[in-house]
Amino acid sequence: MLDAKFVRAEPEKVRQALVYKNCDPTLLDQFLLLDEKRRGLLYEVEKLKAERNTVSEQIAQMKREKKDAAAEIERMREVSQRIKEMDSELSELEQKLTDVLMNIPNVPHESVPLCKDDTENKIIRCEGEKREFDFEPVPHWELAAALDIIDFERGSKIAGSGFILYKGLGAKLERSLINWMLDVHTLEHNYVEVFPPFLINRRSMIGTGQLPKFELDMYHTDKDDDLFLDPTAEVPVTNIFMDEILDGRELPINLTAYTACFRREAGAAGKDTRGLLRVHQFDKVELVKFCTPETSYDEHEKLLADAEDILKRLRLPYRVVLLSAGDMSFAAAKCYDLELYAPGVDKWLEVSSCSNFEAFQARRANIRYRPGPGAKPEFVHTLNGSGVALPRLVVSILENYQQPDGTVEVPDVLRPYVGAEVIA
RNA sequence: GGAGAGGUGGCUGAGUGGUCGAAAGCGGUCGCCUGCUAAGCGAUUGUACGGUCAUAAAGCCGUACCCCGGGUUCGAAUCCCGGCCUCUCCGCCA
Questions:
Q1: Please, which residues bridge with residue A258 across strands?
Q2: Does this complex have an ipTM over 0.90?
């Protein structure tokens, strides 16, 4: 959520954000109109409340002196009635105002290309060499089926399409990757590991910006519980400090978490759905940072480097893409995607989005810090990035490390975890 | 699932329907003092929204906030109802 004062002061920046992030541009005018109305009404009702407070005090005084206050009480009865009516009108206005504000996206950082779609995304750099094959590389679903490490049919049988059953060394590879990535981030990148709940309440989903706009993308339990299945560890981990005031001296706080992630992927039907490319449940190791506004863009680069390090250590070819405004998420101010090359499907696959949300999430989730002793609390800046998401990483490993006989070499760094040099 | 207790400021913890934004302590900040440190003394110390000012800061004025939402009342931290959460005991269970 943006600061109402910012929207008032910089309407043109907000209008631009609405246009380039493909949101309803009239939201700005709705906001300004409602805001104006609200301030007028607020002034009126507060005047009445001030009167009520003074007269109530007089009544108390008169009662103490045993004087008759019947006339004042009668008058205040009417004033209170009036206040009640105006208050309910006001809270209706405020509800509308919040609804509007909640649907206004974050403003892109000045370094972000202004474009409504992905056509102006910038490839910042490519890392690692694409492997030269002296045979025709096959897609991961063929490799996995032949090696019997993923059973797509039985996964579907249990849950539905887009749900994966890993087997044998496939399951072990998955578990190894999770453990290895967590070890790298905690032991070498200075993150603290957390293991959050996988079911999340509505308030938290609003806090990070998944709601109210994207409710249909989420799995939701029945009305009595009103809980959502974790779509990304960003949600439970960012909300750890909801409604708290952090000590500025503790910042930056770096957290990493493994969670399963659940997404309905409504509206993505038929697109890249083969094999592991787009699934409803997947594993992910996430990186989350809380920092001061002064350092958030430096921390953003560090976050990117920490995620990239995983891909470098696995010696996989990838590229770094700076997303344009229209391709970024609703809450982000700036975002880099990491895309791994997968030779079997001959595609660049997104395995991480590293975003700086500035104070957008912190304002919604009410996460503040005290810059110094006795100083006023300020909103923190929050950042997160996948470090990294598993299915497409597995795709890239299988397809890049495949051998002519259909077996797959295990990357060096994973061998102690998998306990094998080859998946055969 | 059943029974009970409770949710107060950065923290601990009092609290009477009106003089409570809220005692006290801790912590923080500023100053004094002790030649350093520790201790001591004095003062100060919540947040949000709106207004005033020049849509700067400070100041000043107002309103709201003692878990959340309703209600009673001229007036609610205080009384009533609903919800959420925490703790204890029992049940069930990994």
A1: A285
A2: no
Nucleotide nearest to A75 (CA to C1'): B74
The answer to whether A80 CB is within 7 Å of strand B is yes
- Name the nucleotide nearest A51; use CA and C1': B62
CATH topology of domain A118-423: BirA Bifunctional Protein; domain 2 (3.30.930)
Report the candidate in A267, A199, A188 with the shortest Cα–Cα distance to residue A233: A199
Nucleic acid strand B within 7 Å of A49 CB: yes
What is the identity of the amino acid at A421?
E
What are the structural domain ranges in chain A?
A: 4-102, 118-423
User: How far is it, in rounded angstroms, from Cα A323 to Cα A69?
Assistant: 69
Give chain A's length: 424
For every residue of A164-196, DSSP letters joined together read --B-HHHHHHHHHHHHHHHHHHHHTS--EEE--
Q: What is the pLDDT of residues A63-115, one digit of tens each?
A: 888 888 888 999 999 999 999 999 999 999 999 998 899 999 999 999 999 99
CATH for the stretch A4-102: 1.10.287.40
* CA–CA gap between residue A236 and residue A204 (Å, rounded): 7
